Structure formats: C-alpha cells, structure tokens
C-alpha cells in the first residue's frame, strides 16, 4: 500500500482533491544546490512565488524514511541545515533510503516519481539533468531523462544545465519521445543563457496552450513527461562567453580530480558559481523563481 510510505501535506491533499493547482518542487536544490541559509530562503521564496500566482507549492523529499509531498518550513530548514549529509535520491535510491529510515533530497527524477504518486502533474525546477560531456566514453547520462520518458509530469525548467552536452541531451529526449516545448522561444535555453544553437520541438506562447497539450497527451495514454523550456529573464541572463569559460574550466578540474557520477553536477555548479564570483548563483535563483511562476500558471490552466 502506497499510503504506508507516502505523506501528503493536508493543504496539498485538499487542493488535489478539489482540482486546485499544485506545483511540485525538488529538494536537492535545498540540500545540495546552495549553502545555508541561502538555500532555505530561496526554497521559501519559490513557494511564495507559486502562492502569489494562485497555486499551492508541494516541496518533495524523504524525511525519516517517509515520502513527503509538501514540506513544513521546519522540514525545509532541516534539509537546508543538514546540507550535503542528506542523501541525493533518484529512482534507484528511494526504496533504500525509505527502508533505512533516512532523509533524502529528491533529484528531478525522484521528484517526478513522488509527484506522480500524489497525482501532481506540474513540477518546476532550475534545469534538468542530461547527457554529460564525454558520455561517449563515460556513459554518464542523468536518470532524469529516462524518468521524463516514462513519468506523466511536465517539468518547467530553464532547459538543461549548461555543464551538459546539449546536443546529445536533445538527441536522447527525441529518441525517447519526450517533447521539448519552448515557452515564448524558438531556441533551447541553456540555463544561464536565454538561447543556444539547439532548437525545440514546439513553441507555445501561453500557459493555456501548454496545458491543453498536456491534457491531450495524457488523455490519450501517451505516457511520459514534457520538458517546458522557459528562458531565464533577460535581466538575469549571463554573458555566453563568461559561462562558457567557467564551465570549461570547471569541467577540466572535475576530470583532473576524478569527480564522476552524482557528485559531478554539484561540483560543477559550485565551481561555476565560484568562477563567476557568485553571479551564477544569483542567476540560478532568479530562473527557479521564473519557472515556479510559469509552473503555477500552467497548473492553473490545467485544472481549468
């Protein structure tokens, strides 16, 4: 029985029961994405941004071995203070963290799974994982992509993280039949920058158009997620050259230090932040807020 493992915050359960808009949020960004107390402040800010748009936020994590859909402020603070000691949880990790009664911060894939369990259709995050550079040798491909192929949740993001191989990420998504929707853009945004040399599958310019497409997809039992690529606001975007140089240096250092697997993304993002003098962290926070607002608008349109 799922109820033996899953706790849905009463406010979230009530909203879902009454066909009111709910937006899922991940918790890896809290424990692994930025330092305390900035992580807790940002998580609460993102929840507030969703409420301002008329939707209910549901931050997702594992606390004491319980799957949590919707966290209290105390639980968010607990994850923020515990930081890197909290296990980073994707699909493979969920049963082991639950069985051990431990805490877990959900990745994009982990959050999608728990959101789907609760019946939440829209999830807002920073950027999705993807195919890492050099994957033809390392086979380092994020589990986020396979989850998008299988799980019926729309992921509103600023594209794939710029530390990744965007061309191969697009190829993988295409092979798995995952649509990439550009929100008011014809180009795949690259996290810190509004554009890349890569295209999208469909451009849709309103939350209502996106909601209609989601409704049609899942009503026809066409399972799997949708990537809604929402460019970072222009005033918070970073110069392409600045980000490219920082990413190249961070990648070279990760190879030198032998950093691989699920340690690579936190290392690269932290190093890029250092190399840009903290500017990339500010941009990261602004793009998450931007995605949360759009996620709430899509969730409202979906319920309507």
Fill in the keyword field for this structure.
alpha/beta, 47% helix
Low-confidence stretches: none
* CATH fold-level name: Indigoidine synthase fold
CATH class: Alpha Beta
Biggest β-sheet strands, sense, barrel: 11 strands, mixed
Report on the structure:
With 304 residues, this protein is of the alpha/beta class. It has a single domain, classed as 3-Layer(aba) Sandwich (Indigoidine synthase fold). Helix content is 47%, strand content 14%. It contains 13 helices and eleven strands. It has helices at residues 10-17, 28-31, 38-52, 73-82, 94-99, 108-118, 135-138, 143-150, 166-175, 207-219, 240-256, 264-275, 279-303; strands at residues 6-8, 22-25, 56-63, 66-69, 87-89, 104-106, 122-124, 154-157, 180-183, 202-204, 226-229. Strands 1, 2, 3, 4, 5, 6, 7, 8, 9, 10 and 11 form an eleven-stranded mixed β-sheet that branches. Helix 3 packs antiparallel against helix 4 and helix 10 crosses helix 13 (279-303).
How is this fold's topology laid out?
Elements: E1 6-8, H1 10-17, E2 22-25, H2 28-31, H3 38-52, E3 56-63, E4 66-69, H4 73-82, E5 87-89, H5 94-99, E6 104-106, H6 108-118, E7 122-124, H7 135-138, H8 143-150, E8 154-157, H9 166-175, E9 180-183, E10 202-204, H10 207-219, E11 226-229, H11 240-256, H12 264-275, H13 279-303
Helix pairs in contact: 3-4, 3-13, 6-8, 10-13, 11-12
In short:
The chain is an alpha/beta fold and 304 residues long. The chain has helices at residues 10-17, 28-31, 38-52, 73-82, 94-99, 108-118, 135-138, 143-150, 166-175, 207-219, 240-256, 264-275, 279-303; strands spanning 6-8, 22-25, 56-63, 66-69, 87-89, 104-106, 122-124, 154-157, 180-183, 202-204, 226-229.
């Amino acid at each position: 029985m799922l109820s033996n493992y899953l706790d849905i915050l009463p406010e979230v359960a009530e909203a879902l029961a009454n066909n009111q808009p709910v937006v899922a949020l991940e918790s890896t960004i809290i424990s692994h994405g930025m330092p305390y107390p900035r992580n807790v402040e940002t998580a609460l800010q993102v929840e507030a941004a969703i409420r301002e748009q008329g939707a209910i936020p549901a931050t997702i994590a594992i606390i004491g071995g319980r799957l949590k859909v919707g966290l209290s402020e105390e639980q968010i603070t607990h994850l923020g203070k515990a930081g890197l000691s909290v296990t980073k949880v994707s699909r493979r990790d969920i049963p082991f963290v639950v069985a051990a009664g431990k805490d877990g911060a959900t990745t994009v894939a982990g959050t999608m799974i728990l959101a789907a369990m609760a019946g939440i259709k829209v999830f807002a995050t920073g950027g999705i994982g993807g195919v890492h550079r050099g994957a033809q040798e390392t086979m380092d491909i994020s589990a986020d992509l396979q989850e998008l192929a299988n799980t019926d949740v729309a992921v509103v993001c600023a594209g794939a993280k710029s530390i990744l191989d965007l061309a191969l990420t697009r190829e993988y998504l295409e092979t798995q039949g995952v649509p990439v929707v550009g929100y008011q853009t014809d180009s795949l945004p690259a996290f810190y920058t509004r554009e890349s040399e890569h295209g999208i599958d469909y451009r849709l310019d309103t939350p209502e158009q996106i909601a209609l497409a989601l409704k049609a997809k899942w009503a026809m039992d066409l399972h799997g997620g949708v990537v809604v690529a929402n460019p970072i606001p222009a005033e918070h975007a970073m110069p392409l050259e600045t980000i490219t140089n920082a990413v190249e240096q961070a990648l070279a250092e990760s190879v030198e230090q032998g950093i691989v697997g699920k340690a690579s993304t936190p290392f690269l993002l932290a190093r890029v932040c250092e190399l840009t003098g903290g500017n990339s962290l500010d941009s990261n926070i602004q793009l998450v807020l931007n995605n949360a607002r759009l996620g709430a608008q899509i969730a409202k349109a979906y319920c309507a």
